[in-house]
Amino acid sequence: MLNQLRLIRVVSILSSSPRSINIAAPSISINKLPSNIRPTRSQLLMGSSSYTTSSHSSKLLFRQLFEKESSTYTYLLADVSHPDKPALLVDPVDKTADRDFALVKELGLKLIYAINTHVHADHVTGTGLIKTKDPSVKSVISKSSNAKADLFVEPGDKIYFGDLFLEVRATPGHTVGCVTYVTGEGPDQPQPRMAFTGDALLIRGCGRTDFQVSCLVEVQRCFTSLCIHRQDTNKFIFTLPKDTFVYPAHDYKGFTVSTVGEEMVYNPRLTKDLETFKGIMENLKLAYPKMMDMAVPANMVCGLQDVDGIAKAC
Ligand SMILES: N[C@@H](CCC(=O)N[C@@H](CSS)C(=O)NCC(=O)O)C(=O)O
């Protein structure tokens, strides 16, 4: 079926000549480099502030973007070594869709996907708005979310943008359809790897598990999808290498990034046994998200508040 793909490969993979320098490395003095490997102005523009981590890939452009009302992070990733500069946005927000779309244009990228980690409850996704600006952009969400989108992913799927890709891992618990997108493994892929965890794994926390009918089941799902060490690498986040960067959809304390290793040691919820974890999650006493009653129905159909109108855009 067209919109239920096990494997998404959008643009033809073109090999690019290897670069001998990492133009993102701030310690290199550009003018001291021989002219034949000195970056051009546009390379400098793309490379000078493309990273907020020490991930190394001459191909990846990476930006962490923030929406302050819901404390949401949106992530922009692009393969800038590919001639088309294919890009994707993870968890765009309606309020910052104009900003993010303008940034994509300024950087000369071709946005191909607007991807959601799950059906958000605290803000409206920017996916629908972005599609009205560029109808060629495909919306993506997990099949298990039961939301509308152009493409549905399942655990184990790979989402290609140029030579780079994201793997899909199931991380249910906050919602049934929560997934984490992890950068690929391979010589040309970013190192360390990067995990876009949505609300499943937060920095020193995790997503609330009280939205479902049976909270206890969701608490258990959350714990097992994040913590239990097994060989099923499509599922468990803590099986990723310890240096994998953790990029959540929210942070309420000013953190921007963590690592799997750090969360395995310092996460105050996920370092506990299952019974203690259940107790913590049942007693969070978090307020009902302010926008939940509006955001969830909107996000089930791609994010525009006009539900009838957006059904066509998804
Ligand atoms: N006050 C905010 C919602 C805060 C909240 O509930 N955050 C969620 C993720 S967004 S649904 C969560 O899982 N938090 C876990 C935690 O421990 O904070 C609002 O009204 O929107």
UniProtKB/TrEMBL annotation:
The enzyme's E.C. designation: 1.13.11.18
GO MF term (any one): sulfur dioxygenase activity
GO terms (BP aspect): glutathione metabolic process; hydrogen sulfide metabolic process
Classification via Pfam families: Lactamase_B (PF00753)
Assigned GO CC terms: mitochondrion
Keyword Transit peptide: yes
Cofactor: Fe(2+)
Keyword Transit peptide: yes
Top EC class, one word: oxidoreductase
Catalyses which reaction(s): S-sulfanylglutathione + O2 + H2O = sulfite + glutathione + 2 H(+)
Annotated compartments: Mitochondrion
Keywords on record: Acetylation, Dioxygenase, Iron, Metal-binding, Mitochondrion, Oxidoreductase, Transit peptide
Highest taxon, organism lineage: Eukaryota
Cited PANTHER family: PERSULFIDE DIOXYGENASE ETHE1 (PTHR43084), PERSULFIDE DIOXYGENASE ETHE1, MITOCHONDRIAL (PTHR43084:SF1)
The protein, known as: persulfide dioxygenase
Organism from which the protein derives: Dillenia turbinata
